[in-house]
Amino acid sequence: MSVESQQCLCFVVLLIHTVIGAGEGPTSTTATTTRIEQNELTVSFPPLEDLYNSTPEKHFATENNTVVTSQTGSTALLPCVIRNIGDGIVSWIRRKDYHLLTVGLTTYSSDQRFQAIHLQHSEDWTLKVRFVQKRDAGVYECQVSSHPPTSIFLRLDVVEARAQISGPTEKYLKPGSTLRLQCSVVQTTEAPAFVFWYHNSRMINYDAERGINVTTDPAQRLSDLLIPAASASHAGNYTCVPNNAVPASIYVHIFNGENPAAMQSSSPSPFGFEIQSCLFLTVTRFIIQR
Ligand SMILES: *[C@@H]1O[C@H](CO)[C@@H](O)[C@H](O)[C@H]1NC(C)=O
Ligand SMILES: *[C@@H]1O[C@H](CO)[C@@H](O)[C@H](O)[C@H]1NC(C)=O
Ligand SMILES: *[C@@H]1O[C@H](CO)[C@@H](O)[C@H](O)[C@H]1NC(C)=O
């Protein structure tokens, strides 16, 4: 008798039991329910050799197609929890080039940033990627050896954290006025450990005696630079450098009088206008011709 016809027969017997059982009062209903559960188990797990195998079924506890987002420079952790792994061995494979990264606790890749993390008696085989780079983005496969091997896939998204100084990229101030620069770290998945401020090439976080006050709130991903009375010596390039994000710069002009030369130099040149109108005419002509 084939497996299918056995299953079919089983199902018919089960149906009869259910129908008969329904009329026999509450006690036998319970007994029938138990039998249904047992029968369902035998019916829904072919092949037959598995029926007599008492070891619990191996399965992934990490959701398939999980997405992990990490910022560049940080450490990414791709989880892979497997229940009842038995003597199965876990491998991590980078899908974009089928590069074998780890087998068990051994790193196979020449790139030592990849490492499988597994504590004894745990069911977790996390892939750890240190100093995440943009090129690490993509799909990773956590594969367990069995016949056939089973896998789940995780996607690593990489964001590039960067500093951002609020306001325009150039600032114009009169001597004696207050210079306040606010730097926020955006697109982050983890707070910066520290934020350095540079005036040209000098690090100024601790230059209190030069009238500079830096306050950083890492949890809020914010750093403020305050100079209560700016003087000509405070002019120049200010750069906000978080330890784990792309820096941002702003140029500060300190000028006397109403109409600084610096402001005129940043106005658009007459050539710029001519080129723009020429381009506009060309595009217009192109559209009309069509
Ligand atoms: C996970 O999903 C992929 C398709 O995205 C599938 O091929 C694979 O069999 C799934 N793994 C498990 C354990 O369900
Ligand atoms: C620096 O600025 C903060 C607020 O931005 C203020 O609380 C602190 O007293 C200032 N420190 C100095 C030395 O001026
Ligand atoms: C300001 O300094 C930063 C870092 O040194 C540099 O990348 C940037 O080009 C400088 N900007 C100006 C306008 O000099």
From TrEMBL:
Record lineage: Eukaryota, Metazoa, Ecdysozoa, Arthropoda, Hexapoda
Record's GO cellular component terms: neuron projection membrane
Designated name of the protein: Ig-like domain-containing protein
Keywords recorded for this protein, A-Z: Signal
Superkingdom assignment: Eukaryota
Pfam families named in the record: Ig_3, V-set
Keyword presence, Signal: yes
Signal peptide: 1-23
Entry keyword Signal: yes
PANTHER family registered for this protein in UniProt: DEFECTIVE PROBOSCIS EXTENSION RESPONSE 13, ISOFORM B (PTHR23279:SF37), DEFECTIVE PROBOSCIS EXTENSION RESPONSE DPR -RELATED (PTHR23279)
